[in-house]
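This is your field. Have a critical look at both lines of this record:
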Amino acid sequence: MAARAQQISAHLNWPKGMLQGQVAIITGSGQGIGAECARLFANEGAWVVVSDIDKDKSQQVADSINQSGGKATSVPGDILDDNYINSLVKKAAEFGNGKIHIIVNNAGFTWDGVIHKMTDKQWDTIIALHGTAPFKLIRAAAPYFRVKDGEPRSIVNISSTSGVHGNAGQANYALAKAGVVGLTKAIAKEWGPTFGVRANTVAFGHIQTRLTAAKEEGAFVTTPDGQKVALGIPQKQKDASASYADIPLRRPGSATEAASAVMAVCSPLFSYVSGQTLMVTGGRNM
C-alpha cells in the first residue's frame, strides 16, 4: 500500500503536463467534443490516438495536434466493426511503444423515435454504438490495462442526462447511456483493486454540438448500410426552450467545457476518484 501511495504521489508532479507521455484512445474525436478532448489531452502531454469514422476529419485533428507541437496519430474506422476495434488497439499500442493508458469512449450519435414507433434498427444500432462497442474496445485493450507497471490507467465512458434521468423520444439512447454507468462501475470494481485502473462516467447535459443544433441545419450521419440519420433538435423545440430555464447557468455548455471535464477526470487531480458519474450539465437535473 505504501509503495502504491508513493507511485500516486509521483504522478501528482506534472512539470510537463498532467498527462505527459500517456497514450490515449479517444473515439469519435474527428469533431465536436471528441476533437476538443484530443486537443486538450495533447496540450497536457498525452500521445493521442484520434479515432473516428470520418477519415478526413480524423486526419485533420491529428495533423493539427502535430503541427502545434503535440503528438497524435489518426486511426480511422467504424467502431461497430470488430476488426476495426482490434486494429485500433493494436495500432494504439504500437504508437505508444507497447502501452495504452487512457480510453475515452465518446463516439456516438442519436437516432430518436417515440417508443411505439421505434424500429428494431434504431434500437439495435444505438445500443450497439453506445453500449456494446465501448465494452468491446475495453475488452480488447484489457492486456494494456491489467498491468502492474506503476503507471496510471483511466477509462472514461461518456453518458448523458438521458441515461441518468431518461428522455422522451430516446428510449434506445437512454438505455445505452444508462448501461455505460453500470459498465463503468463494474470496471472500477474489477480492475481497481489489483491494477489500480480508474473508471468513471461523464454525463453531459445540453452541450453545443451537432446533436443539439437545429435539425433544419441538415447535419446527418450515415449508417454502415447507407441510411442517413438526421441529427439535431427541431427548431421549434429549440425556440420553446431558448431561455434554458431548466439550467441554473442559463446557457448550454461548449464543446471545450465538456472536453475539459473529461480531461480533468483522467488527470492526477482525480487520482482518488473512481466508479463515479460526473454530471456536466450547468446544474440541470440537480
Summary: Confidence is low (pLDDT under 50) at residues 7-11. The chain has one domain: 2-208+250-280. The radius of gyration is 18 Å. The chain is about 45% helix and 15% strand.
